[in-house]
Design goal:
heterodimer; A: about 110 residues; mainly beta; seven-stranded mixed sheet; B: about 110 residues; six-stranded mixed sheet; about 0% helix
Chain lengths: ~110, ~110
């Protein structure tokens, strides 16, 4: 158990809908990363937050957004969902933004768009 | 071309075999190299970490980085059925930045 929690574990929804994925980092970790894992693209970085502020952006679509709240949990919002958004979504946390820290991954949320 | 390329396999070996998993990368700025292991329906977990070139050993696992050829390897000695998982190589140019992953190699070790 990495100490990172993600809810829900599974999510099934329809095209055009909006969903919110939630991540609670390890206790004391200030930085949260979101990744998307699909069969054809592998694990891809979406966005990073540090202590409530956006720190880096990767291959995140404009339909996707995220935020980190004062209690350090983070939410990833996916809107106008398409079939191709079906994937595993992971968050990972580290104590700080800089520094050479291991990223601890949560168990993921499996999103299925029908 | 993806920045980190990895043969997806699958790779099947008998118990006790030596396994070699490999990745190549294209970005010369990459300095940090990791191997993650991902069991089915679980999140990735860090297995090995190497900074710059060289070898690192941890029990049955050895990670090797050759920056001149941009080649990353993971060797597993005396492989066990519990090693059956997907192995992901990852890299990044600077500490604290996001990881760039290969697609992962699925390994199956049969008893």
């Amino acid at each position: 158990d990495s100490g990172v929690t993600q809810t829900p574990k599974h999510l099934i929804t329809a095209t055009g809908q909006r969903v919110t994925l939630r991540c609670s980092p390890r206790s004391g970790d200030l930085s949260v990363y979101w990744y998307q894992q699909s069969l054809d693209q592998g694990l891809q970085f979406l966005i990073q937050y540090y202590n409530g502020e956006e720190r880096a952006k990767g291959n995140i679509l404009e339909r996707f957004s995220a935020q980190q709240f004062p209690d350090l949990h983070s939410e990833l919002n996916l809107s106008s969902l398409e079939l191709g958004d079906s994937a595993l979504y992971f968050c990972a946390s580290t104590p700080t933004s800089g520094g050479d820290n291991e990223q601890f991954f949560g168990p993921g949320t499996r999103l299925t768009v029908l | 071309q993806k920045e980190v390329e990895q043969d997806p396999g699958p790779l099947s070996v008998p118990e006790g075999a030596i396994v070699s998993l490999n990745c190549t990368y294209s970005n010369s700025a990459f300095q940090y190299f990791m191997w993650y292991r991902q069991y089915s329906r679980k999140g990735p977990e860090l297995l090995m970490y190497t900074y710059s070139s060289g070898n690192k050993e941890d029990g049955r696992f050895t990670a090797q980085v050759d920056k001149s050829s941009k080649y990353i390897s993971l060797f597993i000695r005396d492989s066990q059925p519990s090693d059956s998982a997907t192995y992901l190589c990852a890299s990044r140019p600077q500490a604290g930045t996001a990881l760039i992953f290969g697609k992962g190699t699925t390994l199956s070790v049969s008893s």
